[in-house]
Every structure is written in structure tokens, then in C-alpha cells.
Design brief:
This protein is an alpha+beta fold. The protein has one domain: HIT family, subunit A, CATH 3.30.428. It has three helices and five strands; from the N terminus they run αβββαββα. The protein has helices spanning 4-9, 54-74, 116-127, and strands at 17-20, 24-28, 38-42, 79-83, 94-99. Strands 1-2-3-5-4 form a five-stranded antiparallel sheet. Strand 1 and strand 2 form a beta hairpin. The protein is globular, with a radius of gyration of 14 Å. It binds adenosine monophosphate. Adenosine monophosphate binds next to loops.
Length: 132
């Protein structure tokens, strides 16, 4: 069956997709800290990010860089914060969060609630800025 994120890659579970290539997949975090909060995952299912082989890890950061550029265009902010926690889902992932202050990246903050339409339009806004 695999992790919930592998099931998202296989489209067995719905997600607000942002981008995909042969090795990586990006989609909106369903419990966002900010509008545009996105997760980047490798298609190769590995729990701990630092267990990824060097090439996969490096490629994941480069893929994240492209996604981050699109998020920043769609949701203007000081910068895109990048974080790795991995305490909840055992499938390596990078959080990309538009931030203007340290507080915006506080994972203890209450998460935002969006309707399906709002999530869809956030995803579409970012997808329209993707330049791969
Ligand atoms: P962590 O493993 O601590 O980095 O947190 C996992 C993140 O994945 C959390 O921010 C969750 O909101 C997010 N998440 C869990 N399940 C889903 C899902 N089905 N779709 C989108 N995001 C998810």
C-alpha cells in the first residue's frame, strides 16, 4: 500500500498537485501555515530524508528551488522558507512556506483552513507560475 504520500503520487488519494517530474512530486500541504505551503517529495519511498542517496537528495533540492520560485511569484513574500520535519508522515518531504517573518514558519501556529475551491485556486495560481 505504501505511505499516504505514495498513494498521492499514484492518484489513489486526492491532492492539490503543483508539479511533477519523473523523480519528484509537489502538492499543497492540507494543513497549511500559509497560503501556498507546499510539500515536495521524492517518488522513491524513503522515510528519513538523509537516507536518500546523494543524487536524489540534491535533485530534490533543485526541484524545490523551481517550485519555490513559482510560489514566490504567486504569493509575494520576503522569501520561501524551507523545512524538514518528517515526524508525522514517514515519506521524506520538504516543506516550502512563503514567509515574511520567523513567526510565519512556526509549526506550532494554528493551521489555516481553506475550502476545496480555495485550495484549488491556490494550486492553480502556483502552477501558472511554474517554469520548468
Ligand atoms: P511532518 O511529517 O511533521 O513534516 O508533517 C507532515 C505534513 O504532511 C503535515 O504538515 C501535514 O499537514 C501534511 N499532510 C499529511 N497528510 C497530507 C495529505 N493527505 N495531503 C497533504 N498534506 C498532508
Amino acid at each position: 500500500m505504501g505511505t499516504v504520500f505514495s498513494r498521492i503520487i499514484r492518484a489513489e488519494i486526492p491532492a492539490y498537485k503543483i508539479a511533477e517530474d519523473d523523480r519528484y512530486f509537489a502538492f499543497l500541504d492540507i494543513n497549511p501555515l500559509k497560503a501556498g505551503h507546499t510539500l515536495v517529495i521524492p517518488k522513491q519511498e524513503t522515510d528519513y530524508i538523509f537516507d536518500l542517496d546523494d543524487g536524489t537528495l540534491a535533485g530534490m533540492v533543485i526541484f524545490s528551488k523551481k517550485v519555490a520560485a513559482a510560489i514566490k511569484k504567486a504569493f509575494p513574500c520576503n522569501r520561501i522558507g524551507m523545512a524538514v520535519l518528517g515526524l508525522e508522515v514517514p515519506h521524506a518531504h520538504i516543506h516550502l512556506v512563503p514567509i515574511d517573518s520567523l513567526e510565519d514558519m512556526n509549526f506550532r501556529n494554528p493551521k489555516l483552513k481553506f475550502s476545496q475551491d480555495e485550495f484549488s485556486s491556490i494550486a492553480e495560481k502556483i502552477r501558472s507560475k511554474i517554469d520548468f
